[in-house]
Design a protein that fits this description.
Elements: H1 5-8, H2 17-22, E1 25-30, H3 34-39, H4 45-62, E2 68-77, H5 85-108, E3 111-116, H6 124-136, E4 143-151, H7 153-163, H8 172-182, E5 194-197, E6 216-219, H9 229-240, H10 256-266, H11 270-276
Parallel strand pairs: 1-2, 1-5, 2-4, 3-4, 5-6
Helix pairs in contact: 4-5, 5-6, 7-8
Bound molecules: farnesyl diphosphate.
Amino acid sequence: MCGDVSEHREQAIGTTGEARRNRGCHVAIIMDGNGRWAQGRGCPRQVGHMAGAGAVRRTVEAAPGLGITTLTLYAFSADNWQRPRPEVDGLMELFESYLRSEYDRCVEHRVRLSVIGRRDRLSAGLRDAIEMAESRTRGGTRLHLRIAIDYSARDAVVAAATSLRRTVPLSREVFAAALARAVNAPPGTPDVDLLIRTGGERRLSDFLLWESAYAELVFTDRPWPDFNAEDLESAVREFAGRERRFGGLGPSPDDADVDRLVQHDAHCSITEGMTES
Ligand code: FPP
């Protein structure tokens, strides 16, 4: 099982292979397919988003048992403002009611909740709900749940680069910290290990582009409202079966025993997490 989030919080993005092996698993999910799920049932798209909130609850509950210590969910991109006003308003109301109704469950299950993205275009009520949920769940160490709202990876890169324009020389660690500040994220969040996209599309849609440099990608046709613990486990199993080389070479035959141990660790002890849950 991966250790608690607090043990890994200080590790910067873009660190060495050793640091990568010793921290918990970061899974990011592009939750797609809500609208089609609803329309296929003859319902308004908002019904799909509401069902999507149920899938968020199921996923958050299942994540720690699979060895996941950071879970980042893409709820609303900066480009989603282009959607019709009633859909945008419905989503914003859903986010606010989720944050107001879920924070005590997060406290109970030791989940730390953060929201990443711009806040200046959100309503005062949603901003207040975000601040309240973040401050009340700050002590959570079992899972760091990050919800991306009004998020754009490219805008974040531009904001970070602008904030560092006078900083030379620049390192990956310093840039990663500026990137976190640009989206109001707590510092020290590890790189994405596994990026899942539901709903049948196969693209990244401006999500965590820097942080996913070495992420393993898993795409599933399952629409987000139907996504469940078994789907998460299946994605994690696929991830655990992949060999991650981070640009290096595969294991040499001479080092077979050592490498088996390292690889086991590199997969974030994810299979142990499954048997424990
Ligand atoms: C993409 O599906 C989904 C969204 C833009 C919204 C995601 C929101 C939720 C899952 C609601 C619950 C979230 C929280 C954090 C409480 P789409 O609408 O683009 O689907 P489509 O491709 O089928 O049209």
